[in-house]
Request: fold
Amino acid sequence: MPEIKTELLFKLTLEVPPILVLGETPYGNRRIAQVVGGSFEGPKLKGRVLNREKINKSIDGLYFICFQCKKICHNLDEGWMEEAGTLNNYCGTCAKAKGIRSSAA
Ligand SMILES: [Zn+2]
Reply:
């Protein structure tokens, strides 16, 4: 069997408030864990995990990784579209190719 080589991409630190316990449901015991922020840092990649509720729409811009082309994009240069339902982020080019029309910015 070939050896799988791995390397550190980044360390992720998340801000997680106390877990909400819903208890027993028809689908089992359910809990909700929210991520309200955080950061990540590695040899080639560093950034913040944004709290979607606290993003100030007037800030100068955001960097994100396009879900489709995996390119690091800036919303003011490449556009920023969010797919409804999945909430995946796409650059303008990939969003247009996929027919995504809702904008996160
Ligand atoms: Zn893209």
Notes: The longest helix spans residues 92-98. The beta strands are 11-15, 20-25, 28-32, 37-41, 46-49, 63-65, 72-74, 81-82, 89-90. The pocket of zinc ion is lined by residues 66, 68-69, 71, 90-91, 93-94 (CB under 6 Å).
